Amino acid sequence: MANQGFVQTLNLAEVTNGTQLIQNLAGGNIDEDLRLFAGLSTRKSSLFWNRFRNNSQNIKSQKLLREGTQFQWNTDFTYTDDDYVYAIPINLIRDIDSIYIGFDRDGTLLENSSGIDIVYDRGEDYLPGTYNLSLTGGSGSDAKAEIIVDANGNVSSVRITDNGDGYFNGDILQANIPGGGTGFALRIVCFPWKVVLVGNYAFDISTLDTASLSVAVSNTSDSLNGTYNIEKNLNTGVNTWGLPNSAATKAFDVNRKIYAQEKILKNIELYDITGDGQLTQYDVELMNEFYNNNRDLNWFVNYVNANPTPAGSSRNNGTRVYNYLTGLETSVFDVDGTGEFSFDYNLLTEYVTNGGYLYQRPSAAALIAATEVNSNGVAHVISVSFRAPQNPGYTLPQNLDDEYKRPYFILFKTISNQVINHFDNFSKYGTLQVGETNETTYLSISIGSTNVANGVEYNIIDKYTSFIDNVQHYYIKIVAQGLGFALNSTQNNLLIIKSTPVFSSTTEYGVFDSNGVDSYFLVDNPRSNDETDKELITFFTKYEVTTNESLSYANIIVPTTVLVPDLLFERNDGLELFNIENLEPPIITDNGLNDFTNTGGFSYDVRDGYSTELNRITNNVDQSSFLRTTKYRIDRNLYYQKEININGLLTSFDPDGLNAVQTDLELDNSPGIYISSALSQTTNPLAADFAQKTRSFSSYFNPWKAFPESQELRTESFNVTINDLVWTTEIKLDVNNGFKSSGLSESLNDNFNSSLLSQGKSFKLKTLINGEEFYIIMRKP
Fold it and tell me: Rounded to two decimals, what is the model's pTM?
């Protein structure tokens, strides 16, 4: 079933010249739908996962009744079962700024035409001397350079003295050098614009000092989208970074605060215990007393009597406060999401004290104007900077929560000639392993149980048996913590024979057990026809935070799902006949204001029901494909890989009288075989539409063999030449059992009998068989 809730608007809009793609030789205009089908589509739909707004958890799938990792969105859009997706770690862009840097890093370049920022042609016949000149041309203005002309009249040195403003990479500049010479030209080869992107979440840079880095930017503008190398400091050879707020705080702790801040802000009415419209320390103390100290009604009655609620509170006595607190789910008190049974008193207190924030992302404007630093003393960053070839001319949209096209970036690092996504932390999610065991252990192990071996925990997710060489084998599937156990090692009577990460950014997954609205699971091997090959993706439930990741949470066990970064769930929406149902018009389109309407959405105006419209579109596509690729194809050979059964006439026709005399048969325009309908002049001389037949196949090159005893001509030819009728399996032309005329059976001999010519016309199709000329005889009544 197509995804009704998430279909990109104008999925096929990139096909703009459809009238050229479909040659309607019969006349008329091509329907707009068929224009789109002609070029098909290369578009991909994107569903974005914001780690601070969405969540995931390990729960049982209702379809499979097994525990898996369910992804949950705070939106009305998701993928549906049997969609194929990739999960790509990204960092959503929260702020952006750019500034013109220029191309002034080149000093004097003696007898050298290349530098860091510029290259130049020396020219000739100029007046020797040293000149301070303005540069003209290019995209910007006001650039100046010191130019030295040597005794031979050639430019020997160029030094930029003023880089002006607004130039682009590739701009070519000239200067009016005295002497009337020619040939001097200066080209800008650097990227003169600096761009800063502030991400959605912080990340660690401790291992990136000297790494070769690049940043891929997507969903911004045509002038900014692309991949850019990140330049190291020219003097130290290390990467530098914009100094973030609370630079000494490690990335895990920063992200924990951002998550808590987002959760409180989105659910401020839940944390407003007294109901006075704001979150105060009084509310925090009530939550702390309830969760950590007292859950007794009398205590709250006495406490509120002694410490009255603020004016305007809707819950203004102890009973009302107590009843409200008892109605809150435990997860409400887990403000940072790192442990279900905890109350983050300190975070709530800090939020109130700081006036409504726990961590503020630095602005892109502040970072672009500040001096960048190396990683010494910087425990996290939340931005990247790079040089761009031209003014990006891009500002963030006001609605950053648009689910269709979120701007994002990916930081890549090159290690051992491999390009790695730095945001990819999937290796921490656990390892799927298979262990072989004996019958006793197999029977004693329960699916869903947790075990420990050599300090490594693992969860039992499945077990199965198999007969191999008439011997029954017993297997246990586990999801182990971290990298799991070594292959071929034995752990608790399990011989580990297979091991793969539970999650990968390069693996295609299938959407499973989707509710069609805001949640789904994933399975691997989605295109397999064997359902037993599809494994439900299950993260290991726990993760132990390391000292390199956090100061406040070091060695603390947290749910593995809190590690999930921003993700791009990408589905290929390329249009092919097998997935034509993806063109189903969307039920709703979110304009960002929760104003749901299908106005402006991609639609085929479904009036007669989905099935009827789908069949109609499919038939149009089939007919269009036939017209474009078969009926009017004249630029290449045509291949028919299926058996062709002809129920009707197979005729040789000479409508223009090209074979009026014997010698005409030697010409290239000899008639051929037509497969036609009853509406064609080929079979009905009164018909007016001459286009209702396939083009002629006229061949002299099929190696036929004669079988006189059965009155047959046969060929098993696989030879191919343009405009030839080539049979790819053995065929037979049985002319002995054809229709009868005047009670006579028409054999090969009968067709040559001149006495029968008055009853109709016989036509010959000339062919070469083993170098000898033969004729296929067909009679037109």
Answer: 0.70
